From TrEMBL:
Pfam families cross-referenced by the UniProt entry: ALMT
GO cellular component: plant-type vacuole membrane
InterPro entries per UniProt: ALMT
GO-annotated biological processes: malate transport; monoatomic ion transmembrane transport
Principal location: membrane
Family under the similarity heading: Belongs to the aromatic acid exporter (TC 2.A.85) family.
Membrane topology qualifier: Multi-pass membrane protein
Transmembrane segments: 48-67, 79-97, 104-121, 127-147, 159-177, 189-211
Subcellular location as annotated: Membrane
Keywords per UniProt: Ion channel, Ion transport, Membrane, Transmembrane, Transmembrane helix, Transport
Protein name as catalogued: Aluminum-activated malate transporter
């Protein structure tokens, strides 16, 4: 008996410990989920507001089911209003308008063509009617599906073409068995129109989220991320370069922003004029600026890789190039900061940008310093390659910054950015600096290798 009691007591204890362990794991996962949810809401509080807006819109259209007078007028077709809100309501106004207009236009056009196909099939007689309807569905669905492959169509109207196929099939096919097809189609079209209207109205009136604002901020922030890297490199180059996770992650985020940027451009083009953005604002120009910004970010990614290897270059060579590299990087960062500020504040950029001119002057000095005259063969050429590559990438990045500056200037011209008056003292100071000859760094001597960057 005692042994049996001991066994049962041991089993009970082990079962209790296992249960406690499982409860602890579940609690840990619940706490982790709570932290992730809190972080998600904290990162962008608009997500919480959007969720509440969707809930409100669905609740409003559900009233067509709850109130008898509304239900009598629309019947079971009221469910289409709820479905419309679910599929149309998006995070931004541009995305909601795009989906809503696509759905409404596609529904009415497809319904009209469906009635036309049904009418022609009726004229053909009872025997040929299903054949005519089948052929119309086949050809229209095939042609519409093929048209969806066009890039421009897919970018803006893909959802509309999808709804077009669905609506045409519903009207033409269901009309074969449904006697009151006109009444049913009218109710469905009306409920879709009501659902779209409610979704758009709530999206605009309650805490509106404009895709154009997000795009504007994204492009300026991406340029600023590049500026932070250049300025960080200019300050730290005098010492041994070490990766700053914040700066590196910043410019790497630029490389992954293409899909978000493309979506925002398409959504912004659906939006009406708002705030400082007028109707037909040149949103496509942001795509060009973003593309050039990513090209510069790719160079910075390569530059960061070589910087770690370049730290193995002999210090007496690095020291003679330090001043030009630091100055070129610092001035490039300042130029990008100016461009980011110009976009953010919607003011005309300074063209030509004085910081770009200074970085180009520093690049000339760097090219001169890299022309090493033959004297001695005491240095290994492999030790110079990382340094020369870093210098080449820095010089190449200036051309990218110039293109970004030109694109920002085009955006400022197209969008009628307001003028920014440069202080006279600053302008005079820049002219004086341009007239002065910058001191050329000492040429590295005592080595027989020649490294030239054109």
């Amino acid at each position: 008996m005692e042994m049996a009691n001991e066994k049962s007591g041991g089993l009970l204890a082990s079962w209790s410990e296992g249960l406690k362990a499982k409860i602890s794991k579940i609690m840990a996962k619940v706490i982790e989920l709570f932290k992730k949810t809190k972080k998600l809401a904290k990162d962008d509080p608009r997500r919480v507001v959007h969720s509440l807006k969707v809930g409100l819109a669905i609740t409003l259209v559900s009233l067509f089911y709850y109130f008898e007078p509304l239900y009598d007028g629309l019947g079971a077709s009221a469910m289409w209003a709820i479905l419309t809100v679910v599929v149309v309501f998006e995070f931004s106004i541009g995305a909601t308008l795009g989906r809503g207009l696509n759905r409404v236009l596609a529904t009415f056009l497809a319904a009209a063509l469906g009635f036309g196909a049904h009418f022609l099939a009726d004229l053909a007689g009872d025997t040929a009617q299903p054949i005519m309807l089948s052929l119309s569905v086949f050809f229209l669905a095939a042609i519409t599906t093929f048209v969806r492959f066009f890039p421009r169509i897919k970018a803006r109207y893909d959802y509309g073409f999808l709804i077009f196929i669905l609506t045409f099939c519903l009207v033409s096919v269901s009309g074969y068995r449904e006697d009151e097809i006109l009444k049913v189609a009218y109710r469905r079209a009306l409920t879709i129109l009501i659902g779209t209207f409610i979704a758009i109205l709530i999206c605009i009136l309650i805490c509106p989220v404009w895709a154009g604002d997000d795009l504007h901020s994204l492009v300026s922030n991406n340029i600023e991320q590049l500026a932070n890297f250049f300025q960080g490199f200019g300050v730290e180059y005098s010492n041994e370069w070490k990766e700053d996770e914040g700066i590196v992650e910043g410019f790497k985020s630029v490389l992954t922003s293409r899909q978000t940027e493309e979506s925002l451009v398409n959504f912004a083009r659906w939006e009406p004029g708002h705030g400082t953005f007028k109707f037909r604002h040149p949103w496509k120009q942001y795509r060009k600026i973003g593309s050039l910004t990513r090209q510069c970010a790719y160079r910075l990614e390569s530059l960061n890789t070589y910087l770690l290897a370049e730290s193995q270059t002999p210090l007496h060579i690095r020291d003679q190039l330090k001043e030009s590299c630091s100055k070129m990087s610092t001035e490039s960062g300042k130029a990008l900061k100016d461009l980011a500020s110009s976009i953010r504040t919607m003011t005309l950029p300074r063209l030509p940008n004085p910081h770009i001119e200074k970085s180009k002057a520093a690049a000339k000095d760097l090219k001169a310093a890299l022309k090493i005259r033959p004297c001695n063969s005491s240095i290994d050429l492999l030790e110079i390659v990382p340094m020369a590559t870093v210098a080449s990438l820095l010089i190449d990045s200036i051309s990218c910054i110039e293109k970004i500056a030109e694109s920002v200037g085009e955006l400022a011209s197209l969008a009628n950015f307001k003028r920014f008056e440069v202080e006279k003292s600053a302008s005079l100071k820049f002219q004086q600096e341009q007239q002065q000859k910058l001191a050329t760094p000492a040429i590295v001597s005592g080595h027989c290798h020649v490294v030239t960057i054109d």
